[in-house]
Amino acid sequence: MLVGFQPRRYQEVIAETAKRYNTLVVLPTGLGKTAIALMLAANRLSVYPDGKVVFLAPTRPLIQQHYEYFKRHLALEDSAFALLTGSVLPAKRIKAFSEARVLFYTPQTLENDLMSGAINLKDVCLMIFDECHRAVGDYAYTFIAKEYVKQGRYPRIIGLTASPGSDAEKIKEVIKNLSIEEIEVRSVDDPDVKPYVKEIEVEWIKVNFPKPYKELQQLLKRFVSERLEKLKEWGIIRRKNLPKKELISLQANLMKRLSKGEQKGFLYSSVSLLSEIMKVQHAIE
């Protein structure tokens, strides 16, 4: 099922672990985490011919990169792949989910489709979380992983990161939130990795958040606060400090009311405001 691809030995070893267990893969940038996910995807699709693979990455450029890499090396028809971000209309996303076998999502997009009940993850045989160290708090990865474990008939999770962070409690939270069972860690000094690494010098430079960015951040926060205040005035929300998950759920609820024929002007305005709020909150993050 793989074409134009030659795995490295340590990638094969890690992939074997990931076939049997939900696995957190910690590898420095440039050592082929995506290749491991590719090998595992090929395996799961061959084991489950009717199954689907979902690949998640936090930004559009990154998920586009993974989409193109898989299309190059996974011997499937073009129609088997789907790239789904917030720029794709919900109806088209639902259609693509039912027809494609390998789906590439930004997290917020998949979270929205799950919360609205538009899709079900029962046939997903592998879910790949890139930059999985983000799976803490109310970030979309947390909700998606929990739903997948509940809905999937044969769930398998692989989390990819160059660095899980230095906070032990956050690492534990990532492991819990993604139902991780095994951890595979490699550094450039490991004997099975060293043959593939060229000597490089790395100098870490810490920089302060630039003042113009701080000012922009404050403007964006004020923008969100003003719109939340309007929603509070209209009786849509009772408090302004709502987590993102509740805002998405609220938006889905309002859209259902509109779809049932409830014709109230403030409902349309509220849905629009919620959309603005979530887009700007994403920019702040």
Low-confidence stretches: none
> Pairing-aware structural class of the strands and helices?
alpha/beta
How big is the Rg? Answer: 21 Å
Mean pLDDT: 91
Spatial strand sequence of the major β-sheet: 3-4-2-5-6-1-7
Main CATH class of the largest domain: Alpha Beta
Q: Could you say what the CATH architecture of the largest domain is?
A: 3-Layer(aba) Sandwich
> Strand-and-helix sequence, N→C?
HEHEHEHEHEHEHEHHH
Task: Note the gap between the termini.
Answer: 38 Å
Count of discrete structural domains: 2
Tell me the name of the CATH homologous superfamily of the largest domain. Answer: P-loop containing nucleotide triphosphate hydrolases
Our estimate of the beta-strand percent is: 5-15%
